[in-house]
């Protein structure tokens, strides 16, 4: 028996909210947020009056004042008593108090405004509250939006990873919430008839077998109780809670069987030599979607089905966007070539020609899709170029001119961006990278001036062969400068630095040391190391034997910037910020996002463009905090605060969410938000403006406000990248890549959809007035490109106290 206690519970992707430990409050909310199953139909049609409203009002005062409400919490009554669940609450729903108070009805006039305020206050508390409240609804009362919300949650539940998304959708419709308030409560006993399958949502349970005691502990994300459902036998063990307030997902046996059977019915399983090689899901009559498969069988499917080069979201598109997770570039190339050349034995002479020609056409179109997806990164790869050459020759020899043209058109588009990439010093990027690399060596590093033309992103993306200077330091602060390709791995940088400094390379490792002295050891095959470092981070080679020893950061890592904040207008500064962000976003490649999700070091490909975009957000944020904390004069500090709010407003107007949020979050940074005198002097109108911006950052409901806001903005949008990356990481962590030896293509499709929705923000071009403004002022352009910051929170807090000491109230 394996005791899972030794292994920490895997992340479920959620922070546990204190609400979960306060079931009284939670139940009240649940009860208010859904109509009770015991309610009469008239109550259901007007669910927000009477007792429910009264409770809502009580809850409002409770959540505000953190004191229990006037009316006692309704006592939780089980919907159905579990076998020996003591006072367990099934489905998490206390029965609503029968009182539909007449006095409350009279207050109906102000219901809506009160309700809006109440719900707003409650739902701001946490996304978890909302999801629990939704789960607590009776399945028959769930709206489509409820089911969608639950489905999104289920995508992150470890125990359900092996289920297809269609099954998860079914589960979302019927799953129930079960709550056990105390430790030591039994969910069921060994020997009883099994009637439900469970997943631990919060808390943990012991699995107890008669005569053996506790054989195992199950944690968040684990499941139990399936065995007896599958065998139609008795419970093989008893399950007992270990912690207060444990929450479980419960799927009743009828639902369990129905879902599994209906899924079996609509799934087509293809076997080859007795082994399952592909699962397809029937969508409509005659239309199937790949849900799982071996890489080889999926390649067969690719060349065996019609390929629409224009259609994003097609199987080919999803396949090429995500293939790195399950099939190397070399294998895809050789697989396609083999299929191009082969003439299958079963293809008879007369029909054979037609079948072969169709296959060749499809392969050509598939490769065109691949080029469109991977762009310039692909056309620089020697293996891919081999495939391309053979395909072009073959298509020409076979007289398939139309396909040859499709291929060449995609190619010329990508080569154009590849040619642009031949500049080894891409001005803005080099400026930015150089800024990363040139700490302590003065500004600029002798680079060319930025070259930005009106309305066009003329700055080429960073390419693997671009050369960059990099400084590597030792513990004793001795430094050596190297010039390396961007795709140089951490191990190779360490080797080169050691040989320059005459140190034995096997004794050293490459590390990043942050401005606060934190040390991060880099993996041998880490790539894009220069762009991955923190804003003021530096590369060090440190002895392996001293891994526990602290390293003192270089002096310049915490140096205060000397260049004053520009006097230019907020409008101009916002235009410069936006053009810079837009350039970085335009240069980011779809494949970089995919490499980053599956582990950047695995593929040997750079993710520099994505890194630069991600770190720009942090840079801008620290720039604002640094500027505020370095201004000792109160009047000027208030003027700065006002200017930053204005800049944020302009960025918002330009759909530059990345910089807009960087500014708003910077002004909420403790080092700035603590400046009471400064905020007090700010005009009320500006304060209200800031509050309206701040409301967009509301983290509740998984940043629902921000998501909705961002999706509605006019294109192009520079999105809030940290949120996008978080979503991608959740999808990756929450879903297996391989299930029973087959690639989980549903996961690939979900990831591909996320990547596409990110790049859809790039539709269109920046407004002309932004480009005009941003091209007018080279001085400001340079300043915005090379912003210098303090990125050490402790230093910033210290600076903040220096410029605005805490005012202590006089003691009486
Ligand atoms: N040794 C064990 N290790 C982990 N889980 C177990 C063990 N024995 C039983 N279980 C779980 O406990 C559940 C008891 O009910 P079931 O028999 O339906 O399904 C059982 C399994 O899910």
From TrEMBL:
Biological processes, Gene Ontology terms:
Ras protein signal transduction
Domain Cyclic nucleotide-binding: start-end pairs: 159-261
The Ras-GEF domain extends over: 569-806
> Which of UniProt's keywords are assigned here?
Guanine-nucleotide releasing factor
GO CC entries = plasma membrane
- Which residue intervals define the domain N-terminal Ras-GEF in the entry? 286-415
- Ranges of Low complexity compositional bias? 95-106
Record's Pfam families? cNMP_binding, RasGEF, RasGEF_N
Q: Does the keyword ATP-binding apply?
A: no
Sequence segments annotated as region (Disordered): 63-106
Please give the Gene Ontology molecular function terms for this protein.
guanyl-nucleotide exchange factor activity
InterPro entries from the UniProt entry: cNMP-bd_dom, cNMP-bd_dom_sf, Ras-like_GEF, Ras-like_Gua-exchang_fac_N, Ras_G-nucl-exch_fac_CS, Ras_GEF_dom_sf, RASGEF_cat_dom, RASGEF_cat_dom_sf
- Indicate what this protein is called per its UniProt record: Rap guanine nucleotide exchange factor 4
UniProt source species: Geodia barretti (Barrett's horny sponge)
């Amino acid at each position: 028996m394996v005791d899972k206690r030794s292994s920490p519970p895997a992340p479920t992707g959620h922070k546990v909210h204190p609400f979960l430990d306060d079931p009284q409050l939670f139940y009240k909310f649940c009860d208010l947020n859904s109509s009770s199953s015991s309610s009469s139909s008239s109550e259901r049609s007007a669910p927000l009056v009477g007792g429910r409203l009264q409770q809502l009002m009580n809850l409002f005062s409770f959540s505000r004042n953190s004191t229990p409400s006037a009316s006692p919490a309704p006592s939780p009554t089980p919907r159905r008593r579990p076998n020996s669940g003591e006072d367990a609450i099934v489905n998490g729903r206390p029965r609503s108090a029968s009182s539909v108070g007449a006095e409350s009805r009279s207050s109906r006039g102000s219901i809506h405004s009160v309700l809006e305020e109440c719900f707003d206050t409650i739902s701001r508390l946490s996304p978890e509250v909302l999801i629990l409240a939704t789960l607590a609804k009776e399945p028959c009362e769930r709206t489509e939006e409820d089911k969608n919300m639950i489905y999104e949650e289920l995508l992150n539940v470890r125990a359900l990873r092996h289920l297809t998304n269609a099954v998860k959708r079914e589960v979302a419709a019927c799953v129930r919430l079960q709550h056990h308030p105390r430790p030591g409560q039994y969910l069921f006993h060994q020997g009883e008839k099994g009637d439900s399958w469970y997943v631990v949502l919060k808390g943990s349970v012991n699995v107890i077998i008669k005569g053996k005691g506790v054989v195992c502990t199950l944690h968040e994300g684990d499941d139990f109780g399936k065995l007896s459902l599958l065998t139609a036998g008795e419970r093989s063990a008893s399950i007992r809670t270990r912690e207060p307030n444990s929450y479980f997902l419960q799927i009743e046996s009828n639902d369990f069987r129905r879902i599994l059977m209906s899924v079996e019915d609509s799934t087509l399983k293809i076997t080859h030599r007795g082994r399952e090689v592909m699962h397809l899901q029937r969508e409509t009559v005659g239309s199937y979607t790949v849900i799982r498969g071996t890489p080889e069988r999926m390649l067969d499917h690719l060349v065996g089905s019609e390929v629409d080069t224009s259609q994003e979201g097609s199987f080919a598109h999803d396949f090429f966007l995500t293939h790195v997770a399950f099939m190397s570039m070399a294998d895809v190339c050789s697989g396609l070539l083999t299929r191009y050349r082969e003439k299958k034995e079963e293809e008879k002479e007369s029909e054979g020609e037609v079948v072969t020609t169709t296959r060749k056409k499809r392969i050509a179109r598939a490769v065109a899709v691949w080029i469109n997806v991977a762009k310039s990164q692909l056309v620089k790869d020697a293996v891919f170029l081999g495939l391309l050459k053979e395909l072009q020759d073959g298509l020409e020899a076979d007289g398939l001119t139309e396909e040859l043209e499709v291929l060449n058109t995609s190619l010329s588009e990508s080569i154009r961006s590849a040619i642009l990439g031949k500049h080894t010093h891409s001005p803005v990027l080099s400026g930015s990278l150089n800024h990363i690399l040139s700490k302590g060596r003065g500004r600029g590093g002798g680079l060319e001036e930025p070259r930005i033309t009106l309305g066009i992103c003329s700055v080429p993306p960073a390419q693997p062969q671009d050369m960059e200077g990099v400084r590597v330091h030792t513990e004793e602060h001795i430094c050596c400068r190297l010039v390396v390709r961007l795709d140089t791995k951490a191990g190779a940088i360490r080797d080169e630095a050691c040989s320059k400094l005459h140190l034995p390379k096997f004794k050293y490792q490459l590390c990043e040391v942050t401005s606060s002295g934190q040390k991060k050891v880099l993996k041998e095959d880490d790539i894009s190391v220069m762009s991955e470092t923190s804003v003021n981070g530096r590369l060090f080679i440190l002895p392996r034997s001293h891994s526990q020893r602290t390293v003192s950061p270089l002096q310049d890592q915490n140096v205060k910037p000397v260049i004053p904040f520009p006097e230019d207008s907020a409008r101009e500064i916002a235009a410069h910020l936006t053009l810079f962000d837009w350039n970085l976003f335009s240069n980011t490649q779809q494949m970089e996002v995919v490499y980053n999700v599956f582990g950047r070091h695995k593929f040997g490909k750079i993710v520099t463009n994505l890194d630069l975009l991600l770190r720009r957000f942090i840079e801008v944020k620290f720039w604002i905090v640094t500027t505020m904390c370095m201004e000792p004069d109160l009047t000027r500090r208030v003027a700065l605060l006002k200017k930053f709010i204005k800049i944020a407003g302009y960025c918002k107007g330009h759909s530059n969410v990345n910089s807009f949020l960087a500014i708003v979050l910077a002004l909420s940074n403790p080092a700035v938000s603590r400046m009471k005198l400064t905020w007090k002097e700010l005009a009320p109108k500006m304060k209200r403006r800031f509050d309206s911006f701040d409301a967009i950052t509301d983290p509740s409901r998984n940043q629902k406000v921000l998501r909705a806001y961002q999706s509605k903005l006019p294109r192009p949008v520079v999105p809030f990248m940290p949120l996008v990356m978080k979503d991608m990481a959740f999808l990756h962590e929450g879903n297996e890549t391989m299930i029973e030896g087959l690639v989980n293509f549903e996961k690939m499709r979900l990831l591909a959809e996320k990547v596409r929705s990110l790049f859809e923000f790039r539709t269109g071009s920046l407004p002309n007035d932004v480009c005009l403004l941003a091209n007018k002022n080279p001085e400001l352009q340079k300043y915005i490109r090379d912003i210098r910051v303090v990125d050490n929170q402790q230093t910033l807090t210290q600076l903040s106290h220096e410029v605005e000491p805490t005012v202590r109230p006089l003691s009486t």
